[in-house]
Design goal:
It is a single chain. By secondary structure, the chain is an alpha+beta fold. It folds into 3 domains: 1-91 and 111-131, Beta Barrel (OB fold (Dihydrolipoamide Acetyltransferase, E2P)); 134-175, E3-binding domain (Dihydrolipoamide Transferase); 240-434, Chloramphenicol acetyltransferase-like domain (Chloramphenicol Acetyltransferase, 2-Layer Sandwich). It contains 10 helices and 17 strands. The strands form 4 sheets. Strands 9, 12, 13, 14, 15, 16 and 17 form a 7-stranded mixed β-sheet that branches. Strand 16 and strand 17 form a beta hairpin. The longest helix has 16 residues, at 219-234. The radius of gyration is 30 Å and the shape is elongated.
């Protein structure tokens, strides 16, 4: 049978490995060229990888939940005609005698305690394993409590077994025999002295810490942790705080939304206000490379997106060339794609400056960590009504908190103040950045 090995390609910047999330084509099934065959998770993205060949899936290079390296066999594709002939031959041949115990042949996908593919009984008609739809953390939870996933009906999308499904199966299993253990025969308490002191020979054991759980961080969470640790360890951070009178910004946002019949994300306006400041102070749109500061000729602005799996930074390419409406549409597209984990690696890396709208989750001032490979990040808080002095009068106005963190190796404090002062000036009068 003619077979072809398809190895895991490098689908992103610096990718070295990926985790198999879900097989889209089972072993023994037909596949067409360019048909998605597997869903894998890289450091930031979940992507579908298409097969470069048509034929029959002979075997998978790993089970769901396995991590494979770039260049390792991802899937083996065989010719459809040869596969049909092999299947007919297998049906006609008697079962093979078991091999001597001393003989050892490599077996891909053999079961271990970490295996993620559950098989049915040994008298199944083919060698294809029955795959249970469940994420690695769900499988791990089931293994820890000796729960058979094949007997659980998944309530998630496409029949996927969720954590709640497993927890529901754990409760009745753990309840057996619990009543007897919880109701021991009562014994009279030991007599104590009037002062309440324990007898000298009584041992005191530490109190219970309560039932807890240990769970492995997801691949995305591990990536976030590694990047944050690297940035914090290597970049000497300086954070400067300020406030913006957002009266005009709020008015202009409402007017633009009314004119174009759409909601204008605050990030779109902030990006538009920051671009002139980045042009005036290009050191903020740069990368520190050894003894060199590399000034980027394009403004690729990263926007932090809060997703159920963790924080992702989606990148608006060449943001300086976009209108407010174009920025609004791109912010919305990237935000939805990040939350659904459908963005590609090139849309989740390579920013030259980052904006984090913590006001979207009710935040105010903060100390944002500079993403590694850049020199600055601007955090924008929620605008709240506060008393301010305006033209010698005390008035109530929406006040927006700003927090600017930057790499002190590349940027001095005076330059940092000038940069944020220009950003404040633009935000307080949007006409200054909408006219350019």
């Amino acid at each position: 049978m003619a077979t072809r090995e398809f190895k895991l390609p490098d689908i992103g910047e610096g990718l070295t490995e990926a985790e198999i999330v879900r097989w889209l084509v089972a072993e023994g099934d037909k596949v067409e060229a360019d048909q998605p065959v597997v869903e894998v998770e890289t450091d930031k993205a979940v992507v579908e990888i298409p097969s470069p060949y048509s034929g029959v899936v002979v075997r998978h290079g790993g089970a769901e939940g396995d991590t494979i390296e770039v260049g390792q066999v991802l899937v083996v594709i065989g010719d459809e005609e040869d596969a049909a002939a092999d299947e007919l031959e297998e049906r006609q041949e008697p079962p093979a005698e078991p091999e001597p115990a001393g003989r050892s042949e490599p077996i891909v996908g053999s079961l271990s305690e970490d295996a993620e593919v559950l098989t049915t009984s040994e008298d199944r008609p083919s060698n294809r394993s029955t795959q249970v739809k469940a994420l690695p953390l769900v499988r791990k939870l089931a293994r820890e409590h000796d729960i058979d996933l094949t007997g659980i009906e998944g309530s998630g999308p496409g029949g996927r077994i969720t954590r709640e499904d497993v927890e529901a199966a754990i409760e009745p299993a753990s309840g057996d025999g619990r009543r007897e253990a919880e109701e021991p025969a009562e014994e009279p308490p030991e007599p104590r002295e009037a002062s309440g002191a324990r007898p000298p020979d009584e041992e005191v054991e530490p109190g219970p810490r309560g039932e807890g759980e240990r769970r492995q961080l997801s691949r995305l969470r591990r990536t976030i942790a590694a990047n944050m640790s690297k940035s914090w360890a290597e970049i000497p951070h300086v954070t400067t705080f300020d406030d913006v009178d957002a009266t005009r910004l709020v008015e202009v946002r409402a007017a633009l939304g009314h004119r174009y019949d759409m909601t204008i994300p605050m990030e779109a306006l902030v990006v538009k206000a920051v671009i002139p400041a980045l042009r005036e102070y290009p050191d903020f749109n740069a990368t520190l490379d050894g003894d060199d500061l590399v000034l980027h000729g394009r403004h690729d602005i990263g926007i932090a997106v809060d997703t159920p799996e963790g924080l992702l930074v989606a990148v608006i390419r060449n943001a300086g060339s976009m209108s407010v409406v174009e920025l609004a549409e791109e912010v919305r597209r990237l935000g939805e794609g990040a939350k659904s984990r459908s963005l590609g690696p090139d849309e989740l890396s390579g920013q030259t400056f980052t904006i984090s709208n913590i006001g979207a989750v009710g935040g105010g001032h903060g100390t944002p960590i500079v993403p590694y490979g850049t020199v600055a990040i601007l955090s924008v808080g929620r605008a709240r009504e506060k008393p301010i002095v305006f033209e010698d009068d005390l008035v109530i106005a929406p006040v927006m908190p700003l927090s600017l963190s930057y790499d002190h190796r590349a940027i001095d404090g005076a330059v940092g103040r000038r940069f944020i002062s220009l950003v404040i000036e633009n935000l307080e009068e949007p006409a200054l950045f909408l006219s350019v």
